[in-house]
Amino acid sequence: MNHTVMDWSEGLDTQSFSGLALLKAASAQGARAADILGRHQVLESLAAYDPEVVGTLPLAIGTPESDIDILCRVSDLAAFDAFADERFGGFDGYSRHLRNATRHVAEALVVCFDCEGLPIEIFATNGPTRTQYGFIHMLVEARILSVMGDAFANDVRALKQSGLKTEPVFAKLLGLAGDPYIALAELAELSPSELCERLDVPRN
């Protein structure tokens, strides 16, 4: 999947999401999450695994219950399991489970814990973090929010408050057919003008 379309501006390209800067600037909720991650050196601990923070908080469309999702590239899940036990096992609510491979996603280890009341989920699988669906979905959602505007973002937040997951919310509002996770990922191939045409909105 070629999701590195070159004519997206800074803030909407793949390079703009690394680290905590975007999360910190997104909202008060995002700034608190960035502060917690920074003080506990969560990303530093995961540096060998190419971590990427993804999800709704960097996009300022989270709910009070939103967690922080961190993608990692891990070739040896058993070794990462042992690492996670040692590094994160002392946090409240610590758990982990193996997620079986699906048609589109390889086998993964999912590690969950709370850090100062912030729910954190680490998704570790053997694939570059920027080609994993969690990253691609965030990238596409950022681009959609940019071209659709504030009213659309408010509609997203309202539907998420009702309990719907993020990708189904976007698919519902945009009228995307089929599996919402696949339908959204397919939009990552589009340039700004192509995305605006696909969504039937004027380009800014």
Description:
The protein is of the alpha+beta class. Helices cover 42% and strands 16% of the residues. The protein is built from 9 helices and 5 strands; from the N terminus they run αααββαβββααααα. The chain has helices at residues 21-26, 28-39, 42-45, 77-88, 133-148, 150-161, 166-174, 180-186, 192-199, and strands at 52-54, 68-73, 92-99, 108-115, 118-125. Strands 1-2-5-4-3 form a 5-stranded mixed beta sheet, with helices on both faces. A hairpin with a 2-residue loop joins β4 (108-115) and β5. α7 crosses α8. The radius of gyration is 17 Å and the shape is globular.
Mean pLDDT: 91
Structural class by helix and strand composition: alpha+beta
Number of separate strands: 5
Spatial extent as radius of gyration: 17 Å
> What's the tally of helices?
9
Biggest β-sheet, characterized?
5 strands, mixed
Share of residues in helices: 40-55%
Spatial order of strands in the largest sheet: 1-2-5-4-3
N-C termini distance: 26 Å
Comma- or semicolon-separated keywords:
204 residues, 9 helices, single chain, alpha+beta, disordered N terminus
Indicate the topology.
Blueprint: H1 21-26, H2 28-39, H3 42-45, E1 52-54, E2 68-73, H4 77-88, E3 92-99, E4 108-115, E5 118-125, H5 133-148, H6 150-161, H7 166-174, H8 180-186, H9 192-199
Helix pairs in contact: 5-9, 6-7, 7-8
